């Protein structure tokens, strides 16, 4: 068992390297655990890391992903029918940790599967935030053992997050907060006061999925958050091309690519999926320049 | 009862994506202000009277009571409200609130189509754009209601994801809202979802219980001994129960047991477990991995794997009881009411009737059961005809 450490250490090291890089921001690809099957996940994880990922968002599939567009919805459905669960995501983290000891590993999912991983909810909880925090203990313990650095819970806003954040922190894990272009100043304040690891900026007002261009108001959004904190920022939602990565890389030190990678996997021939992932990550990190010739 | 941050004890709360949180805050503020605004309240009450037809009658079910041979049964007649169910009370109030917030585009989900029709009507009345998400399976089951919505000028969007029923329609409505939140109000159809929705919907539906309490007082000079309502998301039930919460009245919510609690059903409180779905912590139907499972009921309006968080709290504190009734029993309830009182109830409502028929015989004629007759059954006659034919065939 790993000894609990202060949350965010590995993120700090990863973001420190971002400062000295000239080839653009860190890339944290999002891979759905168990897509298309749990058996293939380790090979895809390793391929992404080989291609140049500085870390990973390991997606936990959920039956009702209300912040996801069609690409991830169907990836989750496929993964779930192939038997994926929180366990698959923890196994994926273990694979990644063994393969790339310094990579920053983040689980990303919705509350209910995380809660179900835990013990029976405590009937004495006096309010909802506390009632979801306590069952997170089991997840925090297993995630720490698997080498996870942080957890993103899409449907856990800062308002309900204190108990969960404390439980995760006890196991050395950061609760990674999301901010959106709609976030008010008061909400940004509440997040920056609590954040560790990094803050995930949702680039656009909408669900996950590929878009043609980066949202026009993204620069202004980054400036609003940047004015309030030194915590590293990463951007996700809608980022799908090398050009997007370069563009957002001028504003933030890390980018997250999800749906476009999922599409890459879905459209590759069954035995070429890992190779397709590696090539795609090489392209978006700028290590390979044949994006358009594919 | 604690209600800070929309908490009902450990239930409720706001488990929504960050993008929506500012809109939920805005909605809460708008609702608080509207509640203090006498002009708004006046317009709401006038509209409920002149457009919806409130107050709705309270009807003594003489023949049904006699036939069951026990308690005296009374109906609160939401089936006589405009568009045929209690759903209009909420739809109108929220449409007025949206207009007040300057949001002229409305998205809604619907299962049976009752909430969709009510929302489409309210939007037509207030000149708002209306988009209704409806599961492909429900569109097939409730084709006439789709046409009614379209007659009101609404756009009905078929949802092909997941189980293609109510929960998926809610997911899709929320995705639309996430994308268009600056211009759009999500007009949720039951006492579910993140705070402040369960409170807003309860407030807007409390006219059911408030009127019934007063009407029963006028007619028989006392409170009911038992109040019964069907529970899908729980809006008609909370509307009936809430005004009676501090009174010595047994409150019974009836869920859909579908094909039985050991088979496919929608009895969330009776057979689910605590979890988080659609922005609120409540009871949900789920597997051991926390994946939401599909609900089943003959009545599309009860076919939902979650339930309003206040009901979870009323169950935990034992202030209300939650029971369940199968598809078959609901069909019996529908026939019983149609034959004894000349009222064809909605299949949802038939669940409440069926449970009343179960307990009334063991009660005394001095005792009173108040049933929330949440809607009329016109929308269901085809389903009922087919189900009865299948049963006898
Ligand atoms: C007539 C009627 N009753 C009850 C319901 C169930 O909803 P709720 O539990 O929110 O009252 C519906 C939903 O469509 C309905 O149409």
Walk me through the structure:
The complex is a heterodimer of chains A (294) and B (393). Chain A has 294 residues and is an alpha/beta fold. Chain A has a single domain, classed as Aldolase class I (TIM Barrel), CATH 3.20.20.70. Chain A has helices at 9-19, 41-51, 70-81, 86-99, 111-117, 128-133, 136-146, 162-169, 185-194, 218-226, 242-249, 259-267, 273-284, and strands at residues 26-32, 55-59, 104-109, 150-153, 174-179, 199-202, 233-236, 254-257. Chain A has an eight-stranded parallel beta barrel with strand order 1-2-3-4-5-6-7-8, surrounded by nine helices. The mean pLDDT of chain A is 93. Chain B has 393 residues and is of the alpha/beta class. In chain B, the strands form four sheets. A six-stranded mixed β-sheet of chain B has the order 3-4-14-9-10-13, with helices on both faces. A four-stranded parallel β-sheet of chain B has the order 7-6-5-8, sandwiched between helices. In chain B, helix 5 links the parallel strand 5 (105-110) and strand 6 (129-135). In chain B, helix 4 runs parallel beside helix 5 (114-126), helix 9 packs across helix 11 (235-241) and helix 14 crosses helix 15 (347-359). Chain B is globular. The chains are: A alpha/beta (294), B alpha/beta (393). The complex binds pyridoxal-5'-phosphate.
Structural class based on helices, strands and sheet pairing of chain A: alpha/beta
Q: Tell me the β content of chain A.
A: 5-15%
Strand arrangement within the widest β-sheet of chain B reads: 3-4-14-9-10-13
CATH architecture of chain A: Alpha-Beta Barrel
Instruction: Give every kind of bound small molecule, once each.
Output: pyridoxal-5'-phosphate
Order of helices and strands of chain B: EEHHEHEHEHEHHEHEHHEHEHEEHEHHEH
> How many DSSP helices of chain A?
13
Give the low-confidence spans of chain A. Answer: none
* Rg of chain B, nearest Å: 19 Å
Order of helices and strands of chain A: HEHEHHEHHHEHEHEHEHEHH
Biggest interface and residues each = A-B, 52 and 50 residues
Average predicted confidence as pLDDT of chain B: 96
Largest sheet of chain B: 6 strands, mixed
Poorly predicted runs of chain B: none
What's the CATH topology label of chain A?
A: TIM Barrel
At the fourth CATH level, what is the homologous superfamily of chain A? Aldolase class I
């Amino acid at each position: 068992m790993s000894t609990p450490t202060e949350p965010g250490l590995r993120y700090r090291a990863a973001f420190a390297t971002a400062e000295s890089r000239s080839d653009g921001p860190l890339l944290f690809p999002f891979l759905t655990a168990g897509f298309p099957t749990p058996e293939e996940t380790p090979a895809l994880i390793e391929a992404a890391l080989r291609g140049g990922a500085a870390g990973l968002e390991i997606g936990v599939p959920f039956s009702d992903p209300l912040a996801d567009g069609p690409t991830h919805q169907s990836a989750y459905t496929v993964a779930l029918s192939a038997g994926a669960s929180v366990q698959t995501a923890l196994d994926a983290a273990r694979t990644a940790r063994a393969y790339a000891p310094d990579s920053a590993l983040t689980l990303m999912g919705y509350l209910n599967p995380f809660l179900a991983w835990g013990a029976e909810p405590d009937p004495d909880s006096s309010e909802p935030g506390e009632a979801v925090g306590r069952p997170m203990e089991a997840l925090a313990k297993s995630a720490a053992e698997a080498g996870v650095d942080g957890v993103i819970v899409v449907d856990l806003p800062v308002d309900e997050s204190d108990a969960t954040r404390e439980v995760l922190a006890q196991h050395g894990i950061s609760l990674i907060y999301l901010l959106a272009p709609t976030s008010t100043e008061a909400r940004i304040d509440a997040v920056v006061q609590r954040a560790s690891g990094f803050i995930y900026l949702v680039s656009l007002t909408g669900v996950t999925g590929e878009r043609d261009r980066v949202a026009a108001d993204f620069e202004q959004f980054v400036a609003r958050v940047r004015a309030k904190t030194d915590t590293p920022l990463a951007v996700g939602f809608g980022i799908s091309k090398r050009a997007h990565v370069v563009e957002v890389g001028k504003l933030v030190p890390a980018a997250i690519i999800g749906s476009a990678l999922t599409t890459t996997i879905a459209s590759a021939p069954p035995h070429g999926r890992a190779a397709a992932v590696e090539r795609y990550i090489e392209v978006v990190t700028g290590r390979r320049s044949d994006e358009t010739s594919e | 009862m604690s209600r800070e941050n929309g908490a009902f004890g450990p239930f409720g709360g706001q488990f929504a994506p960050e993008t929506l949180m500012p809109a939920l805050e805005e909605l809460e503020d708008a609702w608080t202000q509207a509640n203090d605004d006498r002009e708004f309240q006046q317009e709401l009450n006038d509209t409920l009277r002149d457009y919806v037809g409130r107050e709705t009658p309270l009807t003594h079910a003489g023949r049904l009571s006699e036939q069951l041979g026990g308690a005296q049964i009374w109906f609160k007649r939401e089936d006589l409200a405009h568009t045929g169910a209690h759903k209009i009370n909420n739809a109108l109030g929220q449409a007025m609130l949206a207009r007040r917030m300057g949001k002229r585009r409305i998205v809604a989900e619907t299962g049976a189509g009752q909430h969709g029709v009510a929302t489409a009507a309210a939007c037509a009345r207030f000149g708002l754009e209306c988009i209704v998400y409806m599961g492909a399976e429900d569109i097939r089951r409730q084709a006439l209601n789709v046409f009614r919505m379209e007659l009101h000028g609404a756009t009905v969007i078929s949802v092909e994801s997941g189980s293609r029923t109510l929960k998926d329609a809610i997911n899709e409505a929320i995705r639309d809202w996430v994308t268009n939140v600056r211009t759009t109000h999500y007009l949720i159809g039951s006492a579910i979802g993140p705070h402040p929705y369960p409170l807003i919907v309860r407030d807007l539906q409390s006219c059911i219980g408030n009127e019934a309490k007063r009407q029963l007082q006028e007619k028989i000079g006392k409170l009911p001994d038992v109040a019964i309502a069907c529970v899908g998301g729980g809006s008609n039930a909370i509307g009936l129960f809430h005004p009676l919460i501090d009174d010595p009245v047994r409150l019974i919510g009836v869920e859909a047991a579908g094909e039985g609690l050991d088979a496919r059903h929608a009895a969330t409180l009776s057979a689910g477990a605590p979890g988080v779905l659609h922005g609120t912590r409540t009871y949900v139907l789920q597997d051991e991995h926390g994946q939401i499972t599909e609900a089943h009921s003959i009545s599309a309006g009860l076919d939902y794997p979650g339930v309003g968080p206040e009901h979870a709290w009323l169950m935990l504190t034992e202030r209300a009881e939650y029971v369940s009734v199968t598809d078959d029993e609901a069909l019996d309830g529908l026939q019983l009411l149609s034959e004894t009182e000349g009222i064809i109830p909605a299949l949802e409502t038939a669940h409440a009737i069926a449970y009343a028929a179960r307990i009334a015989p063991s009660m005394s004629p001095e005792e009173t059961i108040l049933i929330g007759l949440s809607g009329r059954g016109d929308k269901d006659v085809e389903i009922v005809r087919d189900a009865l034919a299948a049963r006898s065939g």
